[in-house]
Amino acid sequence: MPTVLILGANAGIGRALAAEFALHRYDLVLAGRDLEELQALSADLSLRHHVSARPERVDVLNFDALESALAACISPAGDDLEGAVLCTGYLGDPETSKIDLGEARRILDTNFTGPALALNVLANHFEQRHKGFICALSSVAGDRGRQSNYHYGSAKGGLSTFLQGLRNRLYHSGVHVITVKPGFVDTRMVFGKPKLPLVATPERVARDIYGAVKKRKDVVYVPWFWQWIMLVVGSIPEGIFKKLKM
Questions:
Q1: What pLDDT digit, counting tens, does each position of 225-234 carry?
Q2: Does residue 222 lie within any of the structural domains?
Q3: Contacts of 88 by beta carbon, 8 Å cutoff, 6+ apart
Q4: By residue range, what is the domain housing residue 35?
Q5: 246 within some domain
Q6: CATH of the domain at 46
Q7: pLDDT at 191 over 50
Q8: How much is the pLDDT for 77?
Q9: Strand 81-86, strand 176-182: pairing
Q10: Is 106 domain-assigned?
């Protein structure tokens, strides 16, 4: 049975995506920081969908142990590992990050440095096999810097550029790279924030991501209408945009 690795499976989108792949008869490697939570999720999905689900502890901020942690995820799956989805992210506190370098670094490292290093390890693995897919969650916030979340947005923008380069690198190896740009999603990341417009459920986003993987999309906005919203945002001249409170 084909297997997919979900990195950041503790998160709302990661959990929903695990269920979506299990529904389509994929075995799972569920990786994240909270091993106890992953064990419970693995047991539930195995019982509910009759698939194999294996929990693994991986912390993308533990740079020194990242390569070995991912090897423990990859090696047991062998040739059955069809692809990997990276769902890690941290919105953080935008106001705190302006004055607290620790918070700023956590936002930047969780959304760019750690994911980029993890993707590099995954890219090397799939490139050697000449097949598979790599999918990673960026964000619409990365399409244009805004004062309300420019640490998070710049990290996600960097991740989108990294994925674009990775897609170019791996194309001739038969490995497909998908960039997913979600808008607002009803997860723990936005819990307690002021009411946001156009909020999608994790399940809706998971279905869209699964469809993008199967259709071998390059870049996909989820839900789809965010592509047109960001086209409008991106078309505002900088002289006007810098005066806006966004």
A1: 888 888 888 8
A2: yes
A3: 7, 8, 11, 60, 110, 111, 114, 115, 118, 137
A4: 3-241
A5: no
A6: 3.40.50.720
A7: no
A8: 87
A9: unpaired
A10: yes
Report the alpha-carbon distance of residue 94 to residue 228 in Å, rounded. Answer: 25
Which residues pair with residue 181 across a beta bridge? 221
Whether the upstream peptide bond of residue 2 has omega within 30° of 0, thus cis, is no
The total domain count for the chain is 1
Contact 89, 67 (CB under 8 A): no
**In which residue are the tokens 């509910």 written?**
48
| 220 falls within a domain | yes
pLDDT at residue 9 tops 90: yes
Report the C-alpha gap between 150 and 112 in whole angstroms.
13
* pLDDT of the residue at 147: 85
Mean pLDDT of the region 44-48: 95
Q: What angle do CA 96, 101, 159 make, to 5 degrees?
A: 90
Contact 173, 127 (CB under 8 A): yes
Distance from C-alpha of 84 to C-alpha of 88, rounded to nearest angstrom: 12
Cβ atoms 115, 74 nearer than 8 A: no
Residue 195 clears pLDDT 80, i.e. is over it: no
User: By percentage, how much of the chain surpasses pLDDT 90?
Assistant: 74
